[in-house]
Each structure stands twice: as C-alpha cells, then as structure tokens.
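Office hours follow-up: a student asked to see two folded examples consecutively, so here they are.
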Amino acid sequence: MGMPDFSPLGYFKELHLLPRVMFTLGGGLAIASFFVRSQNLVMGLMGVALVFLAVGLNLLMDSAWRESDPPYPLRFSGHVIVQSLVALAVFVLTFYLAIHLYRYGTLPAILRPVQTVH
C-alpha cells in the first residue's frame, strides 16, 4: 500500500492545460479582490466567473471519448454535458453581474434589497 498524494496541486493533474490556466487566473483574481480598495466585488466576481468557465470547459472536453473496439465510434456522456452546461450558465450569470456592477456601480434591480417606506 503506497502513500497517497497529499500535494494540493494533485487535484489539477487531471485537468487539461487551458482549464488549468483559467483556474489559476480565476483563483488569483478572486484572492486579489480582497486586497484591492476599489472594484473588489467586480474582481471577485470575474475570478469566480473564470473558475466556472474553466470547470465548464474541462467538463465539456471530458464529455466525449472513442470506444476501444473498431470502428471506434465517438460516444458522449449526457450527464457530463448537463454538468458543463450548468457550470457555463453560472459563468454567464456571474460574468453578467460583474459587467453590470462595473458599468453602473450597482447590482441589477432584481438583486437589490427591498426599500421599505416609513
């Protein structure tokens, strides 16, 4: 029985190159947003959006494979495609929130707190 891999980078060895780079950049943006005075929420949302884009792309890349028997048909995994579409939908939502917050300075009206009249 061998020793398990306790390296924190061991989780990234299964990823393709592009999602690995996007995870790194998104995580860096999300962490850097804590140290920036202005627009820190925008940077954090952009980092989270980039991470979800990387998750969606990695799942989409892993959703297809070729069978090992001739004529080697191409197969797709339906549940992995659904998971990648959900991750890409979360990416679109967080990216939209970041752009709206950067452009107008406030969250969209549906996400603002309800104003009470006294």
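And the second, which I mentioned at the end of office hours:
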Amino acid sequence: MSDHDLTPPEARAIVRRYAHDLRNMINCMDLEITCLLEEAPAARPELPIRKIREQLALTERLVYGISVRFREPSSHPAAATDIFYNWKQQLHKLGQGALFEWPEPQCTAAITVDFAAVIAILVEICLQVRIPAESSLPVAALHTEADRVIFSVKEPALESNYPTDAQQWQEWERLATISGGRLERDGGEFAARTTRLSFPSCL
C-alpha cells in the first residue's frame, strides 16, 4: 500500500458521498420526466428536455469522478494549454462553461500529471462555485509563475460562498499530490476567494 492509496474508511466515505449525489441526480431526472408526462405540453417543451440532458451529463461526470479516484494513477507529460481547453470543454458539456470568464492563456509550458485526475479536480471545483445573479463572473484561468504552472478559479465576493466539504478537499489534495501538484485557497466566506492548483513546469 502506497502513501497515495485510499484507506478502507476513506474509500467507504467516498462511495457514500457519490452514491448520495447520484441518487439526487436520478431523483431530479425522474421528477423532470414525470412533469413531462403528466403536465400539459409547455410552450417550450425543449427546456425540460435540455435540463434532463444537463442532468445526465452531470451524472456521467459523477461516475467519471468516482472512477478517477479508484483507478491506478498514470502521469504523462502534457501541454498545460491542452488541460486548460479540455477543462473548458468539459464545463461547456455540462452547461456551465459560459458562466465563467476564460482569459486566453499565454502559456507554453508542459507539466507531467495524471491528465484525467487534474481535469476532474478542476471541473469539480467549478461545479461548486456559486454563480452570482448580479456580479462579475468567476474567472477560470491558466498562467505561470516562476517555474510553476497554475490553474486558478477566482470567485467574486458573495454573502456566503458554497463551503467545500472537508473530505472532498482531501480527495482533491490527494489526487493533486499524486501528480506532484499543490492545491491552495485564499479568501474567506464573505470575500472573494481564489483556488489554485499548481504544478512544476517541465520546461
């Protein structure tokens, strides 16, 4: 057993959390389908259908997230921009990408990471961001500082930011550490906060 392997209690806690989230998504889809079957046709019937598709995409992401946590880690060199654009693509697939600002990265560095695990962390961080109704959008960005490549999510100040579950934060830290990365967050409950996932540059 390596330092990065999950202990049995950690594994059980992850399975319980994911089972709870999956059950919620299935119940949401069931409710949407029931409404479609029982209510009179709406003026725009494509809206509930689009919502069901988004919920299916989120369910697929949950299943993918749990698979990343239980498979053997595999690190390979990758262009940091490839990770950035895949991150953006995955959020657009979930119907969330347009809710963020995506500054064009000026980065030519490569990093050696578990590509799938890094994408999973970044997407899950964004899915926990509360999108303000009347405020600047959160910013998802990529940049370099000295010899490190940094992926960041900057959230605007809100009355109360969505708290990150301690267990989930530990999961992200474990996955980041496997790839030699570092996960950090600054800012408080009632202030703007930035979450950074950084890795040593190969170049």
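Two things to take away from it. The CA atoms of residues 79 and 110 lie 4 Å apart. The two ends are 32 Å apart (CA to CA).
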